[in-house]
Design goal:
This protein is mostly helical. About 90% of the residues lie in helices and about 0% in strands. It is built from twelve helices and no strands.
Length: about 400
């Protein structure tokens, strides 16, 4: 407006048409200069807004280090300074607009680069965490671990490639999230395989322990093993449906406890049959032994229930098997001593030799049972003890027959 007023004033002062034309042209040029200046200011304002928005976007990237953020913000400042310099050189509004758009695009590229770096950093963190999670699975073989880690690497490489192709921060974020999800799926698959391996291992252990129960019939053993197999199959089916490693672990832990309880029940049933077959025990002695068995089984089941790790479950089960075995061994020793007491041709002193030998054998058996590290050893030591008791019983009966 000021340029226009000035031009009008100069035109009014003109004495000749030439002077009027000169005043008009000067006014037109001044007005055009004002338009260019306005366009330049508009462009610089836009660049300033872009810089502010860009820096905020860069700072909002959660996976960039402070140094990385500074680097990208410095790049934004550089592009902004270049854009402003180009805007200042503009001689037309169109030139100013072109310089503005070039600056906006360059700043947007810096924001995109920051988003890509953030996404790649997140993928790198995911890979590190995934590999650590896979390594921590105690029931995977080294080959299995390598397979799952290779799968993680493949998903990470695909994610990074997709991130590099992204043309917007939103596309970079989408590629990041897809990569994160794919890597998480590999971690879940590893957890599932670990759990299935653990259940298969425990099932084999339980089946072997059931077979070692010498007082159970084949039908009873088969029934116990079928119960164990059913629990294992149910657990595996549920594990396959699990959506998180935590859910997988919960299912694995429950299955491990179920299998341990089946192992304890089979050992208990075996011991009950042994005690009930002890013909020389009084009813009261059998009742007491059976009561002791119930307590041993209950203690084992309680320990298994409260266990918080697989190792604690295994310890609770093994301790229970040992307690049951010691009750069974004591009942067998008492049965043998009761038989010796019935040898009427032996003196009390002679009987004591054999019963003392049984007591010593029982003590040795209990020590070996306590030292056992697996169910098979517990069963084996129990049988060795029972044979030792029977041997003394036979020796006493032979001596009694000779005297008779």
């Amino acid at each position: 407006d000021e340029a226009a007023q000035t031009a009008k004033g100069e035109i009014d002062k003109a004495k000749t048409p030439a002077e009027a034309q000169t005043a008009e042209e000067a006014g037109t040029a001044a007005i055009a200069e004002d338009v260019v200046d306005a366009a330049k200011q508009d462009a610089k304002n836009k660049i300033a807004k872009d810089v502010e928005a860009a820096k905020e976007a860069i700072d909002n990237n959660p996976n960039l280090s402070e140094d990385e953020k500074k680097g990208f913000k410095d790049a934004v400042d550089t592009e902004a300074a270049k854009a402003v310099a180009d805007i200042e050189k503009a001689t037309t509004p169109a030139d100013a607009q072109t310089a503005e758009e070039a600056g906006t695009a360059a700043i947007a590229e810096d924001v995109l680069d920051a988003a890509k770096q953030d996404a790649k950093n997140k993928i790198a963190k995911d890979v590190e965490a995934a590999n650590a999670a896979i390594e921590s699975n105690p029931n995977l073989s080294e080959d299995e671990k390598k397979g799952f880690k290779d799968a993680v690497d493949a998903e990470a490489a695909k994610a990074v490639a997709d991130i590099e192709k992204a043309t917007t921060p939103e596309a970079a974020q989408a590629a990041e999230e897809a990569g994160t999800a794919a890597i998480a799926e590999d971690v879940l698959d590893a957890a599932k395989q670990d759990a299935k391996n653990k259940i298969a291992k425990d099932l084999a252990t339980v089946e072997a322990a059931i077979d070692a129960n010498s007082n159970l019939s084949q039908d009873e053993k088969d029934a116990a093993k079928l119960a164990a197999q059913a629990k294992a199959a149910e657990a595996v089916a549920n594990i396959e449906k699990a959506a998180t490693p935590e859910a997988v672990q919960t299912l694995e832990d429950a299955a491990v406890k179920d299998l341990a309880n089946i192992e304890i029940k089979a050992a208990y049933d075996d011991a009950v049959k042994a005690i009930e077959a002890a013909d020389n025990l009084s009813t009261a002695a059998k009742t007491q032994a059976l009561e002791d068995l119930k307590k041993a089984r209950q203690a084992a089941e309680d320990a298994i229930k409260t266990a918080t790790t697989a190792d604690e479950v295994a310890k609770g089960a093994l301790d229970g098997l040992k307690s049951i075995a010691k009750v069974e061994a004591k009942a067998a020793a008492d049965d043998a001593k009761a038989a010796i007491a019935q040898n009427s041709n032996l003196t009390d002193a002679e009987k004591k030799v054999y019963t003392d030998a049984i007591d010593e054998a029982l003590k040795d058996t209990e020590t070996k049972i306590d030292a056992a590290t697996d169910a098979d050893t517990v069963d084996a030591e129990t049988i060795v003890g029972q044979k030792a008791f029977a041997k003394e019983e036979v020796k006493a009966a032979t001596a009694d027959a000779v005297k008779g």
